[in-house]
Amino acid sequence: MQAVGMVDWRRSEDFAPLMLVMSGQEEHRLVRSLSDVADALINGWPTGDGREYIAAVKTCLDAIQGNIPPDVARAALILAAEEAGIPVIAVAH
């Protein structure tokens, strides 16, 4: 698939929001854009490894670059959360 260029990664209109139930200061983390996905993975994730985690980071970068749609990055985040034991709550859009 050919790259379409960088997207507005803070845009939330094309992203179905979700809530990550994490521990620590930000127990409930609302994710409603690619920017939120990146922030959760880089700054809020409990571990820096795991196959699904690494895949989610790469997928998020691909989505930010416009190579894949944001919902693919959202799905990858959900898989990484399952791998890390982080409950995910779908938020009504």
Give an account of the 3D structure:
The protein is α+β, with helices and mostly antiparallel strands. 43% of the residues lie in helices and 12% in strands. It has helices at 34-44, 51-64, 70-84; strands at residues 18-21, 28-31, 88-90. Strands 2-1-3 form a three-stranded antiparallel sheet. A hairpin with a 6-residue loop joins strand 1 and strand 2. The longest helix has 15 residues, at 70-84. It starts with 17 loop residues before the first strand and ends with a strand. It holds the Pfam family DUF982. This is DUF982 domain-containing protein.
Essential attributes:
single chain; 93 residues; alpha+beta; 3-stranded antiparallel beta sheet; globular
* H and E order: EEHHHE
Proportion of strand residues: 5-15%
> What would the principal axes of the Cα set say about the shape?
globular
Q: In whole angstroms, how far apart are the ends?
A: 29 Å
Rg, nearest Å: 12 Å
The number of E-state strands comes to 3
Strand order of the largest sheet: 2-1-3
Q: Spans with pLDDT under 50 lasting ≥5 residues?
A: none
Structural class estimated from helices and strands: alpha+beta
The total domain count is 1
How many helices does DSSP assign? 3
Average pLDDT taken over every residue: 85
Major beta-sheet overview: 3 strands, antiparallel
InterPro entries: DUF982
Protein name: DUF982 domain-containing protein
Pfam family, one: DUF982
Entry summary:
By secondary structure, this protein is an alpha+beta fold. It contains three helices and three strands, in the order E-E-H-H-H-E. This is DUF982 domain-containing protein.
